[in-house]
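Chain A, query sequence.
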Amino acid sequence: MEGKILAGRYQIVKLLGEGGFGKTYIAIDTHLPNNPECVVKQLNTNKIISETNLQIARRLFNTEAEVLYKLGNHEQIPRLFAHIEENEDFYLVQEFIQGVELSKEIQPGCKLSVQEVICLLKEILEILVFVHQQNVIHRDIKPANLIRRQQDRKLVMIDFGAVKQVNTQFLSLQSQSGVTVAIGSHGYMPPEQLVGNPRFCSDIYAVGIIGLQVLTGLHPTKLPVDSNSSEIAWRGFCTEADSQLYDILDKMIRYDFRQRYQSCTEVISSLNNIYLTKIQISQTSYLKNRIEVIEGDITKQKVQAIVNPTDIQFSGGGGVDYAIHKAAGPRLKEECKRLSFWDRGQAQITSAYNLDSRWIIHTVGPFWQGGNNKEGQILSQCYINCLSLAQEYSIKTIAFPSISTGTFGFSIQLATRIAVREVKTFLEKHRFPEKVIFVCFSKDTYNCYIETLEEIINF
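Chain A, predicted structure.
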């Protein structure tokens, strides 16, 4: 398949994976500038031989493609670019999501705090609200089908069972047996789904199982089942006691689907209603310990990483950028010359050389142009991308100067508000960095940060 061009446009680059339902490839779109990557899924229809069955398969394929196209209207679900039939083979072309599978974040023995579990559950459930509104059951929710998107660190839900449902019906056409094939993954499937009768609350069960996995540090297949009730006996494996969250999870994973939550909005409401005050209190205390504001010189900070607000030429030509280059020494300049060009809002990481820090994270901030060119969004991306690199490199401490103030034109009030908001949002969802230090060059800037922190998180 490598090198094959579908519909005169999508060129197959390499095999990404394969299974009983078909094969998945990385491809490039040869009709767009820079040939962006996409995902091609080839459905397994090798044994459909009669013309009647082929017509039925074609109808099923087109119907499910319409469903996937509709689901792609959500920002956390990959878009469907095309559905193609060539030489009686069926292909789906979808958006390629650059990021890391949640399964890579959830390693055996890794346990999340109650706070982190709540945030994770809510993010998954909020995507599912949209999916279920389209009258679609995902059928295969598991960590491997949730990708932490590199761009903004949001979860993206992939690999919908709708595609597998087409293949299942294809298999029925091939065998003429009428046998129901269960779609899903062992450990995350509830009993009714195992016998081919999934419901909306089957997806809720799977999300609840992910909750157990990150609370206990155990794969769901390792959790014991009570022989009398058939319920999963998981509470004894948790180190952080919280009966309210535990009760919610128990209701999500009931053996009998009739005893579960019947809608995602119901689960979200329970999480919000029970934890609103507790979360606000714990978040405030938690964030206070992870954010610090000081007056001082960014180049003197004994942290693992400092942030350098540079320009698109990495010139080290002004303000903080100049000070960091001067303190780090000429080898930093040489490494920056080898960095590829990037847009405003993006970030890259280098060694810190002669500084006390280990890393320098470089980001290009926007110029203030009256607020008409999405400058605020671009500045937000500066913070998100710097923090994402800190998360990726497991950086515990990071120091930020003010970005896009001074000659870049942002008022210190606006720049500070954006900085605090993005840092707060990121820290609420991630372990790293463990501490963020805002380094201020003047007393006025220091006071502005303190006032903003008091307003936003009762600092």
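The domain at 99-162+182-286 is CATH 1.10.510.10 (Transferase(Phosphotransferase); domain 1). The chain has three domains: 5-95, 99-162+182-286, 290-457.
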